[in-house]
Amino acid sequence: WNHSRKHSAWGSDWKAFVYWIPYMSSFNELPLSRSMQSNLSQLGYSEPTQVQAKTIPLAIKGKDVIAMAKTGSGKTAAFGIGLVEGLNARHFACQGLVLCPTRELADQVAKSLRQLARAKQNVKVLTLCGGVAIGPQIGSLSHGAHLIVGTPGRIQDHLRKGTLNLDHLRTVVLDEADRMLDMGFREVITDILEQAPASRQTLMFSATWPDAIRQMSSNYQREPVDVRVVDQE
Ligand code: ADP
Ligand code: MG
């Protein structure tokens, strides 16, 4: 045991560290409410996927997480379960924001969040994407929403107009972060993150791990826990 070994093991510029949690085979072993447990079994989710088993306990504790896992590994519920569990449905303010690269993905995520949100009463999930008129979105926002899923450009538009308020945001999720950066959304995303409360939790999901992702993580996450799933089920 010596100094150099410590440095080579963790790296000096790399804040994240690999967090090994024994694979859990049941949602019952995760710290979830009974209503979420029964909702998951109604949805036919009997076992957590690996990225879910590793991410959910951290997300529920409020940790920042950067998770790398392939398409189809269940990343939506990996962040969605914690988003729903953590929100106060009686507080009609945006508590969770999910940024997605495309409208199609945002619609899919919103659909999953609505299913997961059956564990609570009266949770409103709103999608805000470009390519459609902004007026009706402003109308929907005026009625309030607990969870918002959208594409970066349109979220930025609403922040500029003052039609979306992030003062009560608890968690921001970058879904398919690598794809969003490939599409040129880096500056828009950083603008949104700069406007989110400093105390928020930031969860990043990516299929690959380019430098731009690491850089965004080190700039906008606090002591992020690195979750990597190598073997997919
Ligand atoms: P990713 O975002 O990693 O590509 P998704 O979140 O879209 O993956 O999930 C892929 C599919 O797996 C979806 O149809 C989802 O409903 C399903 N799924 C997710 N988690 C579970 C689970 N624990 N048990 C069974 N099916 C699941
Ligand atoms: Mg996904």
UniProtKB/TrEMBL annotation:
Keywords, ordered alphabetically: ATP-binding, Helicase, Hydrolase, Nucleotide-binding
Keyword Transmembrane: no
Superkingdom assignment: Bacteria
Motif stretch (Q motif): 25-53
Signal peptide positions (record): none
GO molecular function: ATP binding; hydrolase activity; nucleic acid binding; RNA helicase activity
Residues of the Helicase ATP-binding domain: 56-227
Domain DEAD-box RNA helicase Q intervals: 25-53
GO cellular component labels: cytosol
Sequence similarity: Belongs to the DEAD box helicase family.
The name this protein goes by in its record: ATP-independent RNA helicase DbpA
Organism: Marinobacter mobilis
Full-length numbering of the shown residues: 11 to 243 of 490
